Give the backbone structure.
Amino acid sequence: MIGRLVGALDAVLDSNARVAPFRILLQVPGSPVYSAIACGATLEEINQHWEWLEQNLLHTLSVFDNKEDIVSFVKGKVKALIAEETSSKLAQQEEDPEKFREALVKFEARFNFPEAEKLITYYSCCCWKGKVPRQGWLYLSINHLCFYSFFLGKELKLLIPWVDVQKLERTSNVFMTDIIRITTSNKERDFSMFLNIDEAFRIMEQLADVTLRRLLDNEIFELDPGLQDPTQITKRVLEARAQNEFFRAFFRLPGKEKLHEVADCSLWTPFSRCHTAGRMYASDSYVCFASKEGGCCNVLIPLREVVSVEKMEDTSLLPNPIIISIRSKMAFQFIELKNRDSLVENLLLRLKQVNASNPVHYNCVDKKETNSLMFVSTCVLSDCESQDLGTVASQSEDKNEGEKENSHLLNAEVLRSVFHQSGAESLDFRMSREQIKERLWNDHFAEYGRTVCMFRTEKIRKLVAMGIPESLRGKLWILFSDAMSDLASHPGYYRNLVEVSMGKCCMATEEIERDLHRSLPEHPTFQNETGIAALRRVLTAYAHRNPKIGYCQSMNILTSVLLLYAEEEEAFWLLVAVCERMLPDYFNHRVIGAQVDQSVFEELIKERLPELADHIKDLSTLASISLSWFLTLFLSIMPLESAVNVVDCFFYDGIKAIFQLGLAILEANAVELCNSKDDGHALMILSRFLDHVKNEESPLPPISNQHAFFSDEQEPCPVTEIADLIHDSYEKFGDHSVEQIEHMRYKHRIRVLQSHEDTTKQNVLRVVIPDVSILPEDLEELYDLFKREHLMSCYWQWMGPVIERHDPNRPYAEQYRIDSQQFTNLYELVSPWTCGEHTKVLAERTFRLLDENMDRLIEFKGFASCLDVMYNGEMNEKINMLYRLHIPPALTENERDSQSPLKNPLLSTSRPLVLEKANGDTVDYQKQLKQMLKDLAKEKDAKTEKAMPKMSQREFIQFCKTLYSMFHEDPEENYLYQAIATVTTLLLQIGEVGQRSSSLGSGSDEFTEDLQPEASAQDPVFTDTVKTTHKETQALPVTEGNWIISFEQILASLLTEQSLVNFFEKPLELKPKLENAKLNQYTLKTNGKSSQSLAEPVINTQ
């Protein structure tokens, strides 16, 4: 409809087009002039155009004050829509290089970014400024969202880094029903009137997610090659990435699986005796099918199970058919496939590659079992393997070297069967229920298939919700998770991993040993060394396989249950499937995935349980309580015989099952939770409820749950049947699709990552604030500038060899660090000590001074402390810093402007220390210096600090140069120059005294008496100074004595001039510098074009 509207608009502006029978005109009341806005060939078409105008344009016109503005706005909007539609008529933007190049030129000219800031796409839209919409162009690049508008004579530029986005959502406001709202730390921006708002939001969502993962989530960055080169990102790549992530999430496939083809088709479903319409997905190692009707039929076909892919004869009843045959003597017929030939060719090529890289290994001893490859390649145990298991068990109590050798032998059957609990056979009712379930499953296998390639329908979901029979549970877990493919394609991998990993000691193994006996301690299997040894091997092997995760708490509980129902090697691959595919990002340093799902769970509570959400204002309480539900799949807080039914649903439906079960539990306890007094009371209510969720049909005797938080036996608690609870969860909350959950995860991942950034920021500020006098709000803005400076090096790949990526695993203070160039940029923006062209040199010296550990990186604390001295320090602290900036290590020998051409004494020692003022008065600086030096000497003696090194003549010249540069353009510039000239003269004379003393050699006290008898007699400070100078400078490579001066002498000299004192003690404001820096920080990054400023009135970086 929008395309037709724009086509009509385009036709209106085409003078050669014939007049359409229906038109929409824009006319100002009282004016004879009108403008054609839209036209149509039929009444229906023009009505559609009018409806679009009503929904997207008419509501906004009321905000304008006069009619001329309305006409200008509507015409501008129409022209922009025509321009955008024209640019996409023939192809997408990347396929229309001329249009895209034109937009790129405008983008670069308007925002002056470096060439590395790649433009992804652009849209015509409106940005709301208060109640007024500003029509313009929205540019989406790899690191920024930018908006440009020139409307009614006013220019507007907005620049929002993706890394600053805290919330991205579609919502509505007073005037528009569908807008995109972008929230940063201090502002909200609304955008509307897109031609295709769905596409625009999807691309924005993808860009925000990719950028935040790339810059703020180091763990994901290293695992995802698609994030490591942002220059390869295009609009098409983003759309393919979104489709690929949905595909992997829907079928719960490995993260490295790449989707190649998506084709609409129909699949023959023998159980319904018809073809079911749906979509085929072909990836590196799988062919998958999902019906268009959700839940009707899904199929997962690993290519390693495929025997052949063949084309059938094309008929009217079976158009473009292909047959995919698998090893278990099943075949899948797909029809109505477009581009069938190329699809089959690609499938055959990938099938060849899969068979070459992963030859099929079936470890079936008895050929009779070949037809029952229903579950896994390791079908039957050999007698030898059973004997090995007995050997491990019999030697488990020995504490000798033989135990260590045999402890690496693997259990070749499930531990539940090894430690079969007595008494289960006597429960006739429960056993009969198990037999009924087994018959139902066998009937289902006969009709729908019994391999990983089975037809997955609503019927199997109902069977899973009833609870999988004990005899089939482990095998079906392996099928549903497709751990079978990993197991079959990696023969010997686990055994080798055990051999390599066992016996090695690291932090992960220490944590594993600590938790081994806490894993289902109430179960007899783990009261025996055999069970403990198997658990140790699986956890240690996984920690060795994936050191990024290593070992996390709750993995022990999950693995214990897996070992109860699967063989040891199968349990290992099930753990791999859970940690790396089904619960991504759950088991790592920051458990980002679990926190994201907790945030999604909060949103689902607000949406599906609004009354509960209204009563409990802070839903984070419920989220924190439910964290263990997600991390352990309810295994730690439900009786085991009930919790395994939850795990059944999880392996079939993924995280969706945990979400809906969590909602069902909250709904069942909603009344009590609304009346709860505090968080502890709410925790007790939920814990008591979960502790009384029973499984009356389980053939195993109940095992007390020692992981439950509370067990209040004084008040009877009603028993809830797990099958009923799961049934309710599917009936009431099972309508959320995987796609909806993935979109919610996108949104909440932004919030969680930004929450971690806020935590880092607050922890850094908490450490720094007590040590500085900068106002907390200014310090917060300074931290943002510091962080942005680091991130901008990541934006455009300007990271030198010493720059490190943001690593959230490092201590808070070390997560963001900057190098010399970044420090120089910040110094020029916020330092009060600006010295013109000399500023950069001073910044480099300041960086070397702060870089105490010589790693060429500094942290925020050092940067803030340095600025604190400049802005809030006392005069002696400021002079102290300036002094240290002009001696090593801050001042280096090879510094380009530090080489002094003066090698001889600057002044004659005959110049008097009594100077004549302009008004004829004389000032005896000698007396003032004597007293000040005495005071400083006493103060120095009182302190135990190590004295600072003396300053050489070359260093002193640089010190003076810096002072002269600092005074430039100061209101008191002339007085300051006179004062520093006077002080310099005095200090040069003092330095010459030390030089002459040094040139006379050892024991030259007589030199002082001959040259300055009065000073020597009356002021021992001068003499002490000379003596100390001589002793400290003997090693200096100067043959005619060394010209040196001390910090105390410089400070005392500067204190004699009131204008200098006033200059260093005048109050300085940091806030104006920060405000200017926020606007100008980007100008230093644009290819060295520092002359052009983005700090125009129209720029807003937030």
Summary: The longest strand covers residues 119-129. The mean pLDDT is 79. The radius of gyration is 38 Å.
